[in-house]
Amino acid sequence: MADDWGEDETRRAKAALISTDVPNAARVADFMYGGQNNFESDRRAARALVRTAPAVTDIAPAARAFQRRMLRFLVADAGIRQFLDIGTGLPLVGNTHEVAQSLAPECRIAYVDSDPMVLAHARALMKSAPGGAVGYVDADVRDCGAIMRGAGETLDMSQPVAVLLLFTLAYVHADADAAGVVSSLMAAVPSGSYAAIYHLASEVDRDMDAAVGLWNTMMPAQPIRLRSRAEVGDLVAGLELVAPGLTLVTGWRPDADDPRFIRAVPVYGVVARKP
After folding, report:
1. Is 87 left (phi over 0), alpha (psi -120 to 50) or beta?
2. Which H helix or E strand runs over 109?
3. Tell me, what's the pLDDT at 237?
4. CA proximity to 182, closest of 227, 128, 122, 247
5. Which of 118, 122, 158, 211 is deepest in the core (most CB within 10 A)?
6. What are the domain boundaries of the chain?
7. Sign of the dihedral defined by the CA atoms of residues 238, 240, 246, 250, in that order
8. Are strands 267-273 and 240-241 parallel, antiparallel or unpaired?
9. End-to-end CA distance of the chain
10. Is 257 helix (H, G, I), strand (E, B) or coil?
11. Which among 18, 36, 188 has a CA at the least distance from the CA of 117?
12. Helices vs. strands in the chain: H and E counts, helices first
């Protein structure tokens, strides 16, 4: 029988993700983070988002600074040496393995994504430091079984793991489904593991509703949603919040050399421990 890819909905969807003529979420984010793996369609989309909500331009540097501080805490203070980074994104300077292994070269990182272009770039460009390990898993954030099976090739699941969901849960629309993602992943890792999340905020910047509406119009295959502080808090119910708890990312253990912003950055951040 002929292999008719046109009849396979999953393969059609994945083929659409690597079109250069329409914006792609990973490539739009890459442009916002200052990367080079993007096309004019992605750049136009990013500029339209910034025109709609100027605070969008602050999200990437603020989130990157939060990620750096969070990883430093997990490695240097909490002693974590294993990371499950779900929603990898395109490779940039300062990815999880680079920051973690700069602090402890033996760190092991499993990256997870379902975008074929992201995985191709990651496998080609994201290499481990000597003594550590970096692996890649092709799986959707909602498929905990596939994630854990794939991650088990790189990580020792009998030892604590930091599960990183950085922006990723914005793609999971139903609150119950998003909470289920976190609870399923944390149930699969041992006591002493951590969850680290940042998520777009719904009540910080009034222009964000319009920006998300525009995103979902431009990228209907990859729609996102905002969540309130209470809704983000529900995602980590049952876990022990690390001080200062659930805050805007700019307020989570800020450093003197962090970027400075003239407005509130509409992103919540939280790190929480599994008892």
Report:
1. left
2. strand 108-113
3. 97
4. 227
5. 118
6. 58-204+225-273
7. negative
8. antiparallel
9. 53
10. coil
11. 18
12. 10, 8
Q: Contact at 8 Å (CB) between 166 and 113?
A: no
Question: Taking 50 as the threshold, does the pLDDT of residue 58 lie above it?
Answer: yes
pLDDT at 5: 31
Out of 2.60.40.1220, 3.50.50.60, 3.40.50.150, 3.40.50.300, which CATH number does the structure's domain 58-204+225-273 have?
3.40.50.150
Q: Which two tokens stand for residue 213?
A: 């509406």
Tell me: cis bond preceding 223? Omega within 30 of 0 counts.
no
Nearest to 162 by CA among 109, 215, 199: 109
Q: For the segment 85-120, what is each residue's pLDDT rounded down to a tens digit?
A: 998 766 565 789 999 999 999 999 999 988 766 666
How does DSSP assign 188-252, residue by residue? TS-TT-EEEEEEEBSSS-TTHHHHHHHHHHH-TTS----B-HHHHHHHTTTSEEPTT-SEEGGGS
Q: What is the pLDDT of residues 163-192, one digit of tens each?
A: 999 999 999 999 999 999 999 999 999 999
| Measured distance CA(160)–CA(115) in Å, rounded | 27
| Neighbour-count burial of 52, counting CB atoms closer than 10 A to its CB (0-12 exposed, 13-18 middle, 19+ buried) | middle
pLDDT of residue 128: 81
CB 119 within 8 A of CB 138: yes
The answer to whether residues 196 and 164 touch, using CB atoms and an 8 Å cutoff, is yes
